[in-house]
Design brief:
CATH architecture of the largest domain: 3-Layer(aba) Sandwich
CATH topology of the largest domain: Molybdenum Cofactor Biosythetic Enzyme, Chain A
Number of strands: 17
Oligomer: single chain
Shape: elongated
Largest sheet: 6 strands, mixed
CATH superfamily of the largest domain: MoaB/Mog-like domain
Number of domains: 3
Distance between the termini: 50 Å
Strand order of the largest sheet: 2-1-3-8-7-6
Strand content: 25-35%
Number of helices: 16
CATH class of the largest domain: Alpha Beta
Length: 417
């Protein structure tokens, strides 16, 4: 089945200046994927006529569907409407349907329709009106030589309503859409290149209709299998069989699928085992506790956390031996092991996690450079430790360490011994 391709064009200087975040394109991409339309490019244009027209011309060469947001207001800096009129060799005239809907909208809110607002109903004569029941700027639908252009307001709640109520249903009606099915395998504790090497032979046997993508984030990695076809049940069966053949190669790194997060999976495992968790976070500063408590119901398995950032708190509040810190330092395997065991005991938990390191950008030495982190997981009377050599970036180090800690705990929770 032939792919149906879309391009998204966002118009507005405020996006390029970094003053406004374009959340529309992200949301639209997900909605289009859900109906079988593949987004191949997202473009942002400033409020310059020639740039906008060039974006239209280029998009029409690549995609069948071009969705445009922004620039539909009645003021002089809103250029989407005049640019569409020029592109489609169209005159801007007062549209009867748009004017009636605009009058009804303003009347329902007890507001007068002034001269400037009335201009919202002046549209290119070659477009069809896409009604806007949430605002004053109606959308415009153009269909020319098999290419569909749709212009919508940039205000997110207006655009989303218009997309769901008007645009997506019509796209489904006018195009023969394939089914796009995604399956995501979530892994941690392995880098992208190492994973690629491990599964190279498996990847080489994938059928043509199934594509594989590696999606790394902070210490976390997603493998996305995408199947394009016309029978969802058959696609799911095929992809599920491929995943089953993949798992023996990478099982030790897999923690979940699709929308699972490490903290979500860990929460489920702790609840199943009726076990409790406590944290002693130094260099992560409570970030792991934030992730754990972001899951509803985490009070069932999370006892609490300490953030003993200073050494005297490690000693007096957490019970780390002073001689341990004097001899080995706060950033050491010995210290972090005591932190993990002591927080487990102090908070009457089954598992204790601890971190201590030099997050940066300052504070490093030749012996202990920025990015040196020790983490530990205590369970029973045992402690598992791990040394991390990370980056010079503080924020990155905190996030990577948090993933490493959660991965260490997950490995313990699924261990057979």
């Amino acid at each position: 089945m032939k792919k149906v391709l879309a391009e998204l064009i966002t118009i507005g200087d405020e996006i390029l200046y970094g003053q406004t975040l374009d959340t529309n394109a992200h949301w639209m991409s997900g909605e289009l994927d859900g109906i079988g339309v593949k987004v191949i490019r997202r473009t942002t244009c400033g409020d310059q006529e020639e740039e906008i027209l060039q974006a239209f011309r280029e998009a029409a060469q690549r995609a069948q569907i071009i969705l445009i947001t922004g620039g539909l207001g009645p003021t002089s800096d809103d250029l989407t409407k005049p640019c569409l009129a020029k592109y489609f060799d169209s005159e801007i005239v007062m549209n009867k349907q748009a004017l009636e809907e605009l009058e009804q909208y303003m009347s329902s809110r007890g507001r007068e329709l002034n001269k400037l607002t009335r201009l919202q109903a002046a549209l290119p004569d070659k477009c069809e009106v896409v009604s806007n029941e949430r605002g004053t700027a109606c959308g415009m639908w153009f269909n020319n030589l098999g290419k569909v252009f749709v212009a919508m307001p940039g205000v997110p709640h207006e655009m989303k309503f218009m997309m769901k109520a008007k645009v997506l249903p019509r796209i489904k009606q006018e195009f023969d859409l394939p089914i796009i099915y995604h399956k995501i395998v979530r892994l941690a504790g392995i880098g992208e290149s190492w994973l690629a090497e491990k599964i190279e032979n498996w990847e080489n046997t994938l059928p043509e209709n199934v594509k594989l993508a590696y999606l790394p984030t902070y210490g976390d990695l997603k493998l996305r299998l995408t199947s394009i076809g016309s029978n969802l049940n058959e696609q799911k069966k095929e992809v599920d069989l491929l995943v089953q053949s993949l798992l023996p190669l990478v099982q030790e790194y897999v923690y979940g699928f699709d929308d699972d997060s490490l903290e979500m999976v860990i929460g489920r495992l702790l609840k199943e085992k009726n076990h409790k968790l406590a944290l002693a976070e130094s260099c992560t500063g409570g970030y792991v506790a934030h992730r754990i408590t972001s899951i509803p119901g985490s009070s069932d398995y999370f006892n609490g956390a300490l953030v003993p950032y200073q050494n005297d708190l490690k000693i007096h509040e957490l019970g780390v031996k002073e001689e341990t810190i004097v001899q080995f330092g706060a950033v050491s395997e010995e210290t972090v092991a005591e932190m993990a065991m002591n927080i487990k005991r102090k908070f009457n938990a089954d598992y204790g996690l601890a971190s201590s390191g030099i997050a940066g950008p300052g504070g490093g030495t030749d012996d202990k450079p920025v990015g040196l982190i020790w983490i530990a997981c205590a369970f029973g009377e045992k402690v598992k430790t791990r040394k991390l050599n990370l980056t010079k970036d503080r924020d990155v180090n905190i996030k990577l360490t948090s993933v490493a800690l959660l991965t260490l705990l997950h490995q313990r929770l699924v261990a057979k011994d």
